[in-house]
Structures are given as C-alpha cells and as structure tokens.
Amino acid sequence: xxxxxxxxxxxxxxxxxxxxxxxxxxxxxxxxxxxxxxxxxxxxxxxxxxxxxxxxxxxxxxxxxxxxxxxxxxxxxxxxxxxxxxxxxxxxxxxxxxxxxxxxxxxxxxxxxxxxxxxxxxxxxxxxxxxxxxxxxxxxxxxxxxxxxxxxxxxxxxxxxxxxxxxxxxxxxxxxxxxxxxxxxxxxxxxxxxxxxxxxxxxxxxxxxxxxxxxxxxxxxxxxxxxxxxxxxxxxxxxxxxxxxxxxxxxxxxxxxxxxxxxxxxxxxxxxxxxxxxxxxxxxxxxxxxxxxxxxxxxxxxxxxxxxxxxxxxxxxxxxxxxxxxxxxxxxxxxxxxxxxxxxxxxxxxxxxxxxxxxxxxxxxxxxxxxxxxxxxxxxxxxxxxxxxxxxxxxxxxxxxxxxxxxxxxxxxxxxxxxxxxxxxxxxxxxxxxxxxxxxxxxxxxxxxxxxxxxxxxxxxxxxxxxxxxxxxxxxxxxxxxxxxxxxxxxxxxxxxxxxxxxxxxxxxxxxxxx
Length: 515
Hints:
TIM Barrel, five-stranded antiparallel β-sheet
C-alpha cells in the first residue's frame, strides 16, 4: 500500500526485506543400521523406519538457529521457521533434544507435537542465578506438554564450573517438585564429570553423557574404540542406571584437534560407525547435531560444522546418499534471512540521515515502513545495520557471504522517484555517508539509480562475493528489475539514497532521459 503527502514523495519499504541463500548439492554412500530410541519406553518416540538406502536416528540434538541468528544476542527463529524444520527432522528421527527452556522453545515443542516428534527438554543453567530461575520456571511450565518425554536439567554445567554438584542437585530437586506430571529427569555432562560426581546419579532417573572422541584428539581410525571405552567406563560406574549418550558427533570442517581431523569424509565415516556400534550395543543416544549453526564461532574453529544438514537446509554432500532429503518447507524457510518482515528482526537497527541531519522521517504502518522524504534536503538515507550504530571497528558484523541476493520490495507514491541501494562493510560509517552523492560522483551516469513506480516489482539483487564494497548498477527492462554489480562479503547497511537536488538528479539507466 502506498500513500503520499502533498509536498514530498513517499517511499515505502514493504515487508519483504530479506536475504536469499543459494544452495549446493553433492553425494555420498553408506547405510548404517537402526538403533533403539532413548524414549523411556514410549512407542511414539521410537526410531522411524528409514527409506530404502537411507538411515534414521534414535535421537537428534536440535538447535533451531537459521543463518545470521544468534541466541546469545536475542536473535531467534520464528515459529514458522521452526515448523518448517519439523518435516525434515521427522524423516530422520522421532526424538529431539533441546538446550534451553526460554527463547523459541515453546514454539519448538508445539511444532514437534504437531509433527509427532518427542522432545527431551533442556533447561539451560549457568552461573547467573537470575537466568537459571527464569529457565527453570519456563521448563516447569513447558513440561506439561505431552510432547516432552524427558527433562535435561543443565548441560555441561559441571564441565564449565558454572555450578557445584550441590547447587545442581538443588536445582534438580526444585524442578522435580514443581512438575505437574511425572517426567524423567536427567543431567547432561561429559563422561569425566559423571565419573567425578557419582553421587549425582542418585538424583536423576537416567544418566545423559557426552562422549566425543574428537575432543579427545583421537584419530578417526580409533574413534569408535575410544567411544566404546568411555561408554563402558560409565556403564560400569553406574550399573543400575540407564545410560543415554546425550551428544556425540564429528565436525565436517575446521582445524585439527590433536590427531582428530575434521572433514566431510570423516564426519560421514564417524556417523556410520557410531550408528552401527550403537545398534550392536543397544545404546540410546542423541546425535549431535541436526543443522550447522553459524553463531557458534568460538568453539576451536569447528563449532559451526557439526550439523548433518547445512544451515541452508540442504543435506551435506558427503551424507546425501544416506540421509533423507530435506523437506521443501525446510529449504524455503532456511533459504531466507529475514531483516524486516512486519517489523525489524532482532539483532538489527535502523538509522536515518540527510544532508541537513533530519532523522525523523520513518514511520511504520500495516507492517511496512513509510519514508516521507524531508523538504529542502540534498540527499537522505535510511540504513539498516547489524546492532545499533557504532564507530567502525567497535560493532558486530554478520557474515553474509553465503547469500546470493537481496530482496527488497520498494514502491513510490508517485511515478518517477528514484533510489540508490548501497551496500557497506563493517569498517564503514553507519551514517549513510558513503551512499551520499559525493561518494557516487565517479559512477557512470548510465547507472546511478533505480526509477521507482507505483507498482514496482520486487528487486532481486545478484550477489558476488568480493572484498571491497561497490554500488550496484540497476537496470530496468520492461516490467523486470535487473541489478548488476557486487556486494561486499561483509556488509552492515542497506541504504536507500533519495536525491531531489538540481545537482544530483536521477537518470534512467542505460542513457535514458532525466526525471
């Protein structure tokens, strides 16, 4: 919808501002056997029957973050994005594990219930008692959903030293006391911590242990033997407790850790060998993990590479022969990085600037942004940045090098208004200055701006990764809008330049006449 004012042109940035992700497909081989499910005897949680030549899993760790989303910064997937993951997960497993009771977890449980997937609900604990109280309260509430079949109180809190054994025991008792129904409770930690804190087994219904041959620096040739030794040690220490492997896996890329080498081939090999081992031993488990998550950048260079599926939803090439193909809904939702869809997404911020430092000409209406260009200005810019405006070198950045195009829905109040779309990197100012006419003075007149019309089509901006920001050349061909040029590998802003001065008039592309 477009509105206009009597004196000034109006540009509306509608609800389709996002980033579209390209995808890759390759293949692999191997078909491990099925293994029992860690379902506490619940039939609905049992491992699904795989398609011929494919595999299924007893359980799978699930982190829902899409490209560019970071739970540590309050940026979470929408309920629609989470729902779209469920068909892919359900084709692989009927039991998922989560790590927090706040954020999007309510949406995860509701979507899992609709998809007939069981949930081992994680209650994320750390060193902050206020956060812990919030997590426990949320977990106690969510446990009333019938999709929740187990509760994991704390994940590696002993390993990190966030809580003492007594503190953790107290939290377990509190959660158990406030549950409205009987749900098995466990704690997830490394096998070394379980050996050190044996008495904690008396407070849980089953033991959830993390065993990573990779983090022991073990070569792939000896990985399964290392896993078996660690599991056997835990089993012998707690002979009367059910032992569930809460995490194990192998990264597909990154630097070596001792003799452990991350690679696509090693990840595929470890998956096959682990599943065959688990089946032979009757071991219950949650494999780590469903999707790559690009926010895990502080884990020795491998944190972003544990997923069986890429973050864009595509199965990893080396696993394509044995994993189910992703559902189309998963691919659609994971191909986009929303920036503004009915409202600005978490982790982004708006900025405004004009030649006269006017900064109050943006309004939101019906899920769209209306830009009413101020009078008597030589230029004006609206920009969106990752995080609030900050000096270069002191602000967060977002690696968007995997994206292939930028989609913007722009419409003008009257025909003939013009806009430039500029891309910046994290080292450039957040004030729109590099989108000003002076910064664009060297561009050929044939390519300065896009003419906007009342019914302008959506823009699809081709992406080519380079090191230096450039201004996009925008060409109109009939009803289509084509954009040539390049983006920067890292960019912070999407700035529209509205120029109505006599010295900086907009020209139609390809040598057209001026407005």
